[in-house]
């Protein structure tokens, strides 16, 4: 029992109870209110869970006020600059950066599992040609439950580990297949001689009738974006994975639920919304007019890619990706890209305008990532799939941690019922 407590008094009854306070490595302390209902007969009311810690976790820490993001204690800028996506995936899963031998073994395991069952080709053929790629991704990831069902014991650490390797390995193959179906080209099989990200780019853009060489600048940029998206504490999709996983469901089904949650424009669809906004603005000369529209509370227009629910300072991921954005555009000969010019003008105004500064509406990672994806030749509607690909190791690490937590119970949020009081049934002829 914690020595720190919070004393709560029910003014109606005069009853007083001390609740223990738990402390983490970083961040605010939390009040352990598990016994609140049994002590007082009350639930707490917290729409959006903005003040509720639903679990304990060793994986990711965010300080939104200071603009800090840590994976297992490592600052995101150090990992994005010096690490690789698979190394970060290992870190999220196992808690420590791998040795050279551990990384080699992990990479080999991921490579061995990157193929998917051939019958999934028929699954993709069942989708209409213009189906949204997130619809395909969500459905196909969920369908993996049919291939790996009896062999998965969620209570067995070794079984959970194999499952983690499988989903990290197969997600690029499934994502690339969704892309190829979307553009009407044949599926490309994985190439085990390429890196994780290089292999994904090859499956996206190569064709059977011509050679394709992975651009190392594009490969590095995409790998870095995947690192930046790998985990982000208890966000909507991660919490969805944990909630679904708490039932003991098949882990592929839990990850599919995360894909579905990520699809929302307020979450993973945000970078797609940024490009749509830039196209709506159209030209740099229109920026002042749209800035005024964004300030007008009566106007439905909103600047997408500015501000963040968590970060009350500059999004640390945006600082990293801004530099990469320029590198990619210069490498691809797109330094004069009109959308980049438009984006930079928006950023310049937002960082100086009193309205945005007071509200700390700084550019976030979605502001720049969409521009990079477009420069790489990736259609706007595919952006969220890339987000899901990056977030997969975080989802599966959170699922593994939850499954091993002895305090974990099936998720069961409470509510305030505001519907009709008890009433008797009235037969249809008397209504």
TrEMBL record:
Keywords, in A-Z order: Transferase, Tricarboxylic acid cycle
Pathways per UniProt: Carbohydrate metabolism; tricarboxylic acid cycle; isocitrate from oxaloacetate: step 1/2
Transferase listed as a keyword: yes
GO biological process: tricarboxylic acid cycle
InterPro entries to which the protein is assigned, alphabetical: Citrate_synth-like_lrg_a-sub, Citrate_synth-like_sm_a-sub, Citrate_synthase, Citrate_synthase_AS, Citrate_synthase_bac-typ, Citrate_synthase_sf, Citrate_synthase_typ-I
GO CC term (a single one): cytoplasm
Top-level taxon in the UniProt lineage: Bacteria
Active site positions, chain numbering: 308, 366
Family matches, as PANTHER family: CITRATE SYNTHASE
UniProt similarity note: Belongs to the citrate synthase family.
Protein name, entry field: Citrate synthase
Species of origin: Alkalilimnicola ehrlichii
């Amino acid at each position: 029992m914690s020595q720190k407590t919070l004393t709560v008094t029910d003014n109606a009854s005069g009853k007083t109870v001390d609740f223990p306070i738990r402390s983490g490595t970083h961040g605010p302390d939390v009040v352990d209110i598990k016994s609140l209902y049994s002590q007082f007969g009350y639930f707490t009311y917290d729409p959006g869970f903005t003040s509720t810690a639903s679990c304990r976790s060793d994986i990711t820490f965010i300080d939104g006020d200071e603009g800090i993001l840590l994976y297992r204690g490592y600052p995101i800028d150090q990992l994005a600059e010096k690490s690789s996506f698979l190394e970060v995936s290992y870190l999220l899963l196992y808690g420590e950066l791998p040795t050279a031998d551990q990384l080699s073994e992990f990479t080999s395991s991921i490579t061995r599992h990157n193929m998917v069952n051939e019958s999934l080709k028929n699954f993709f053929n069942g989708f209409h040609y213009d189906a949204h790629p997130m619809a395909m991704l969500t459905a196909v990831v969920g369908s993996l439950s049919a291939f790996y069902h009896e062999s998965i014991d969620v209570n067995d650490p070794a079984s959970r580990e194999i499952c983690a390797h499988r989903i990290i390995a197969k997600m690029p193959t499934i994502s690339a297949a969704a892309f190829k179906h979307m553009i009407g080209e044949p599926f490309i099989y994985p190439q085990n001689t390429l890196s994780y990200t290089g292999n994904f780019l090859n499956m996206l853009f190569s064709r059977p009738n011509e050679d394709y060489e992975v651009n190392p600048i594009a490969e590095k940029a995409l790998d870095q974006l995947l690192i930046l998206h790998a985990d982000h504490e208890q966000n909507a999709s991660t919490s969805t994975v944990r909630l679904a996983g708490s039932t003991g469901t098949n882990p592929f089904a839990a990850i599919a639920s995360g894909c579905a949650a990520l699809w929302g424009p307020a979450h993973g669809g945000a970078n797609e919304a940024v490009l749509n906004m830039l196209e709506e603005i159209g030209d740099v000369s229109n920026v002042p007019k749209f800035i005024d529209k964004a300030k007008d509370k009566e106007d439905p227009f909103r600047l997408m890619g500015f501000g963040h629910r968590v970060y009350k300072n500059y999004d640390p991921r945006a600082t990293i990706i801004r530099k990469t954005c320029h590198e990619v555009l210069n490498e691809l000969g797109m330094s004069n890209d009109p959308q980049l010019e438009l984006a930079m003008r928006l950023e310049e105004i937002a960082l100086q305008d009193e309205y945005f500064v007071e509200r700390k509406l700084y550019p976030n990672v979605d502001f720049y990532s969409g521009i990079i994806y477009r420069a790489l030749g990736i259609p706007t509607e595919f952006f969220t799939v890339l987000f899901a690909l990056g977030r997969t190791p975080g989802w599966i690490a959170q699922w593994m941690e939850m499954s091993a937590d002895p305090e974990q119970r099936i998720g069961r949020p409470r509510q305030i019922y505001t519907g009709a009081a008890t009433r008797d049934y009235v037969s249809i002829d008397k209504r």
